[in-house]
Structures are given as C-alpha cells and as structure tokens.
C-alpha cells in the first residue's frame, strides 16, 4: 500500500490579489521556498514531495503519521504569510491514493474558502507491515549530446515536456503518476505497474515521438529508499550501455 498526501495552500488565489495583485516574483519565491521547506520536513521521515502546481503539492508519505503532518502545518503557519491544509489517502495504486487524499480534503472545504484553514483530513494511514512504494526514475537517453548541446534551450525544454505528457497519458491508465523532477528526469510512483507494462510504454514513446527513454525501478517500504534504488537501477542501465531499458532493484532490510 502507498500513502499519499495532498498539500494545498489555503485560500491562495484570493490572497495573491488582496488587497492588490502581489508581484509575481514574490509569489514565485514564496512557492519555491515553501516547496523546499515542506520537502525538507517530509524527507526527514523518508517521504518525497513533488511540487506539482506549487499551490497544490503531492507527496508520497509512507511512514508519516498524524503528528508528523501536524508539525509541518504548524511550522509553516509560524513562518509564512499563508497556511496549508492536507489530505491523506492510502491505496494499492498511487493514482487511487491521491484521489482519496484529494476527496477527503475537498469534503472539508474548497481551496478558495475563507473558512478553511489548516485542515488535516486523514482518510487512512498505511500500517508499517503493509507499507510498499515502487518508484520509477525515468530518464532521456543522451539528451546532452542530442539536444542540450545542439538546439536552443527552449526547444529542448519543449521536447522534455512532450515526453512528460506522453508518459503521463500512458502511466495514468495503469494507476501510476508521473512528475518532472528536473533536467531530463521524471519520477513515477508506480505501485502495481509491471516491468512489462513499463517496457511497452517506453517502446511506444520511442516509436511515436522518437524520444528514447530508460527507467530504473526501486522498491522499498518508503519513498526515499525506493527512489534511491531507482537511481541505482539507472546507473546499472548506463553501465550496460542501455542494453536493457528497465532495471528493477528491491531494498531488503
Ligand atoms: N533531478 C535530477 N536531475 C538530474 C539527475 N541526473 C541528471 N540530472 C539532470 O539531467 C541532465 C541530463 O543528465 P543525464 O541524463 O545524466 O545525461 P544524458 O546526456 O541524458 O546521458 P544519459 O542519460 O546517460 O544517456 C543533467 O545535466 C542534470 O541537469 C538526477 O538524478 N536527478
Ligand atoms: Mg539522460
């Protein structure tokens, strides 16, 4: 079972324009700092946050309990001009877990409700013995030589985005999520996705849009170790000169 937390800034839309629109650069700084801050606190417990929309972030939070979530909310309230609400859900697939996390928060009021402040809505928490996270770290082959050092930066960025869109479209059908994590890298929480499914997705994308991908897959009882095993998987693929495009590693305690 995977546990996911939706982190949502309370009443952010209205706040950004009250009493007058705030400078965009200041909003960008607030959002980047909030992401780094929440990431640091969730990472202390081996969770992993994806910045998603910045005003809404999704995190894999296996190992974090109610108190852990509350402490983050309190710390943000004490130091920022905004507060955050959270919804927590668990399921067999990441898609289902974030759906439950969203629904349980939505029941407590809207994102732009003046009455909703610092809600912590927990549908369920994963028990230690049921905790399982599978992460795929997906990466474009040879982006530096084929794109970064050749074509304009914006065009490379556009192609990375295109790869992301294709990956998301195919992964969501299997209950898996996909987040851009920088450079030419994507991270997919993907409990229940088989190696065969992932291989097929990578092959299809190469055929459809000519972007060659590889993926390290990691498994553990928490997000941090699963992502780390996925990174090691990618290194294995590189060492074998991309002969296999998917490599799976399991963390045994
Ligand atoms: N977030 C994140 N970014 C990375 C990571 N590794 C590399 N990057 C970024 O992605 C860029 C591309 O790196 P690589 O994927 O190693 O380079 P490549 O040219 O595609 O080479 P191969 O992937 O080995 O075929 C780097 O310049 C970094 O900016 C990582 O583990 N995480
Ligand atoms: Mg690469």
TrEMBL record:
Catalytic activity annotation: GTP + 3 H2O = 2-amino-5-formylamino-6-(5-phospho-D-ribosylamino)pyrimidin-4(3H)-one + 2 phosphate + 2 H(+)
Any GO molecular function: GTP cyclohydrolase IIa activity
Gene3D superfamilies: 3.30.70.270, Nucleotide cyclase
Enzyme Commission number(s): 3.5.4.29
Top class in the EC scheme: hydrolase
Keywords of this entry: GTP-binding, Hydrolase, Nucleotide-binding
Similarity comment: family membership: Belongs to the archaeal-type GTP cyclohydrolase family.
Function according to Swiss-Prot or TrEMBL: Catalyzes the formation of 2-amino-5-formylamino-6-ribofuranosylamino-4(3H)-pyrimidinone ribonucleotide monophosphate and inorganic phosphate from GTP. Also has an independent pyrophosphate phosphohydrolase activity.
Protein name (Swiss-Prot/TrEMBL): GTP cyclohydrolase III
Encoding gene per record: gch3
